[in-house]
Specification:
This protein is globular. It has an 8-stranded antiparallel barrel. By secondary structure, it is α+β, with helices and mostly antiparallel strands. The chain is built from 2 helices and 9 strands, in the order ααβββββββββ.
Length: about 190
Amino acid sequence: MAKLALMLSCLFLGMAVLVVHSTNIQGPKEIDEWFKTLNNSKEKLTRLHFYFHDAISGKNPTAVKITEPADGFRSPTSFGQVDMIDNLLTEGPEPDSKPVGRAQGLYAYASMEEFALLMVINFVFTGGDYNGSSLAVLGRNPVRHQLREMPIIGGTGVFRLARGSATARTYSFELESLDAIVEYDIAAIHY
């Protein structure tokens, strides 16, 4: 159990470092200039809609199990399992739809009563007006609920100082492969 706690601590620390280093700010002078412009900035609301492709099966999975519960512990809800993801985000539900980014991070099975995930994910945008920007989500995702809501706790680039809400609906789920496509609607407030 101590090894699992150490591994998860390292993962969370590593993700925090990646979020800090993924900003477009180059140095202290640029940070000062950005803070000066912030005083005159107004908050904006940005709405986003995209599809998240969670591919567990096949030759190139984008979600992989990185740890399981301790030996001998069994749970019908996979409690204790942790998966790392680098999932495709697209405009439409089809896998060949126009890519808009990647969902990078991890989810942990965090409930003993139902399939509920602790989501620690960055939506990293790779095109258009949001290219190079990201939104950070940290929250509970009860995957069998029709509609799930998770908080947006920050962002980078266009979405610096973001806060808001991400709602998720399962668009499709393959019982045999466990592959899923999830529809996301985002409301992000930022400067």
